[in-house]
Design brief:
Rossmann fold; seven-stranded mixed β-sheet; 12 strands; 22% strand
Length: 271
């Protein structure tokens, strides 16, 4: 350990105190253990690949989920920020369009809160995850419908790069691809007949396309907008600033931000 390193730690101890340093280190390692821990993932597998998340029973029996990745489900923290936003802001009286159902944790969480749970459509692009999504729907006696499609605007199909759970499947990280039918929010609304909805999105970066291209549809039909924003190469700060400005111009106001999950409310639908 060099002099500069010793000097750095001595400065940190004097400014923060050893207690705060240990607390931060413990929290960092604890979060790592939860997200990437083979031991806890193996416990999940020995328990039948099922976990309890809140009041839900969730199957994680899917080859796209590694043993290490199952540890986050063991601790019940999958999509915690999104579920918190739903608890606080989702309207129970409106139909829901959900883009990006994944395993169905958020889907089931939403469906249990709706006055008309059959008025809830879940769009999921990854064909490998659909059986688990539908299985979790049945395990929790939910009534949402599942549509195999991906958000897309340039053609009738979207090229999906199959990836592990949580990765951006639109980014070409592998040669394992499949074509998926393309939908827009407008076409989903036309097909379902829903007029005013809550929109929930977690589509690994594709949300920026919808927010830019379908601002008129959002203004007309979406009362509550809950979504994860995936920054970085797909959404620069300037692009995100423009999107937020366009939402405000379209009568939306920011209700909250929980982690990377944002909640907007359409003031046109406030009672």
């Amino acid at each position: 350990m060099g002099f500069n390193t010793l000097n750095h730690w001595w400065s940190k101890i004097r400014s923060d105190g050893p207690k705060q340093i240990l607390i931060r280190r413990w929290f960092r390692y604890k979060q790592y253990w939860k997200k990437n821990n083979y031991v806890f993932g193996r416990i999940v597998e020995l328990m039948g690949n099922r976990v309890n998340i809140g009041t839900l029973t969730i199957s994680v029996d899917n080859p796209q989920i590694s043993t290490h990745e199952k540890s986050i489900f063991f601790f019940g923290e999958w999509e915690q920020h999104e579920r918190d936003a739903i608890d606080l802001y989702l309207r129970s009286d409106l139909p829901v369009v959900e883009l990006g159902g994944c395993l169905g944790v958020v889907s089931c969480h939403i469906n249990k809160k709706l006055e008309r749970p059959e008025q809830h459509v879940v769009v999921e692009a990854n064909p490998g995850i659909l059986p688990t999504l539908e299985k979790n729907r049945e395990l929790n006696n939910c009534k949402f419908s599942v549509r195999h499609a991906a958000l897309g605007y340039e053609s009738s199909n979207v090229v999906l790069h199959l990836a592990k759970i949580g990765d951006n499947s639109l980014v070409p990280i592998s040669d394992n691809t499949v074509e998926v039918p393309a939908v827009s929010l407008k076409t989903v609304l036309q097909d379902t007949g829903f007029e005013t909805i809550s929109l929930v999105m977690d589509i690994e970066g594709a949300e920026v396309d919808l927010l830019e291209r379908e601002i008129d549809v959002l203004k007309k039909s979406v009362a509550t907008l809950i979504f994860e924003i995936h920054r970085g190469e797909m959404c620069s700060q300037a692009r995100w600033d423009t999107i937020r400005g366009n939402l405000v111009e379209a009568d939306f106001r920011i209700l909250d931000r929980i982690g990377v999950t944002w909640v907007f409310e359409n003031t046109r639908f406030i009672h």
